[in-house]
Write a structure and sequence with these properties.
It is a single chain. By secondary structure, the protein is an alpha+beta fold. It has a domain of 170 residues: Beta-lactamase (3-Layer(aba) Sandwich), CATH 3.40.710. The strands form 4 sheets. An 8-stranded antiparallel sheet has the order 2-1-15-14-13-12-11-10, with helices on both faces. A hairpin with a 2-residue loop joins β12 and β13. The relative contact order is 0.18.
């Protein structure tokens, strides 16, 4: 994948799908949609933006006229980006392998390391959200009982995560946890000697030509590994192409191919038809899987490596339990049929 795209906005192909998306938005089929980018290989099938109320990591910032240069919360799509960073740092020998015990990497908490059962939790269990610790993010993120909010308000976010009661043996089931990603972000910072955002800029964003971003920091000054990244929509699409191309972008291997393969290898069941790898959701046919990253409010990045098919969408339905419907509808009802039609015309 190169930075250059054919069928940029203004072409007949892009205009057709743009018009369909505009009509869908006008008809109320895509509530809260802030923007969508749909690519098939080097062809941009659509790029569209809508005005709407927005937030910056939970703080309202009012009505925004969204566009290609507008920074937008990724929320939990941030987790999947951290997963890519972990793979880069692992290849550099700066973070522990997935097979290493997790608590041993945090020697500042010897009391926790000594508790029975915690020695069985591996780095891999954090990467796949199977640590077996109590964690609840089903509550609204305005509720202090939400575990991520509790972590952000704690005097020591890492102790907060590591001291959570053991619910079950590690590896038994998937327990969604922003705390797991906070620990992984900390391992990256310890191993590289850089803040998470600085390391991301140097190893991931600069190779992709991403210069405009923000990584929101918590009250303790730490970049939120679970949900704090803000990117533009075209730049999020670049990350999708990176994954589709086995970690390569513009002829350069940015993330090791082996790590991409590890990341999209199913390791835990989430729902029927959806599994989880290393900080990426996995769906679709086993021989042609989809790699998916999702975030509060309806943020979504869908990647089908088989055809280098990438759909990135921003939505402003924060804390709405049905927010996922808007970006999923963009993918299933608009993007997928357009890509399928184009691919069928290309077949001999």
């Amino acid at each position: 994948m190169t930075a250059a795209l054919t069928n940029a906005p203004g072409s007949a192909l892009a205009d057709t799908l743009d018009q369909k998306l505009r009509a869908g938005f006008k008809n109320g089929e895509l509530p809260g949609l802030h923007g969508a980018v749909i690519d098939l290989g080097k062809r941009r099938l659509a790029e569209i933006y809508f005005p709407g109320k927005d937030e910056r990591w939970g703080s309202p910032i009012g009505e925004r006229q969204h566009g290609p240069d507008t920074l937008h919360d990724l929320r939990s799509v941030t987790k999947s980006v951290v997963g890519l960073l972990y793979g880069i740092a692992l290849a550099e020998g700066k973070v522990p392998a997935p097979s290493e015990p997790l608590y041993a990497q945090f020697p500042d908490y010897p009391d926790l390391m000594a508790e029975p059962g915690r020695d069985r939790i591996l780095v891999a269990h954090a990467l796949s959200m199977q640590m077996g610790l109590e964690w609840n993010e089903d509550l609204p993120y305005s509720d202090p009982r939400n575990s991520e909010i509790g972590m952000e308000r704690a005097s020591d976010r890492y102790r907060y995560v590591l001291e959570q009661p053991i619910r079950e043996a590690p590896g038994q089931s998937w327990i969604y946890s922003g705390g797991a990603v906070a620990l992984l972000g900390r391992l990256i910072e310890i191993g590289t000697g850089m803040s998470l955002d600085a390391y991301a800029r140097h190893t991931l964003f600069e190779p992709l030509g991403i210069s405009h971003f923000e990584w929101v920091r918590g009250a303790d000054g730490t970049p939120s590994a679970a949900s704090g990244l803000r990117l533009t929509l075209p730049d999020l699409a670049k990350i999708g192409h990176l994954v589709a191309q086995d970690g390569r972008y513009d002829g350069k291997q940015v993330v090791p191919k082996a790590w991409i393969e590890e990341s999209v290898t199913p390791r835990a069941d989430v729902t029927e038809g959806t599994r989880y790898g290393y900080l990426w959701y996995i769906a679709g046919r086993p021989k042609a899987p989809l790699a998916i990253a999702v975030g509060n409010g309806g943020q979504r990045l869908t990647v089908q490596p088989e055809h280098d098919f990438v759909v990135a969408a921003f939505v402003g339905r924060y804390n709405d339990p049905l927010s996922w419907q808007t970006s999923l509808k963009v993918t299933l009802d608009y993007a997928a049929p357009a890509a399928k039609a184009l691919l069928s015309r290309q077949q001999p």
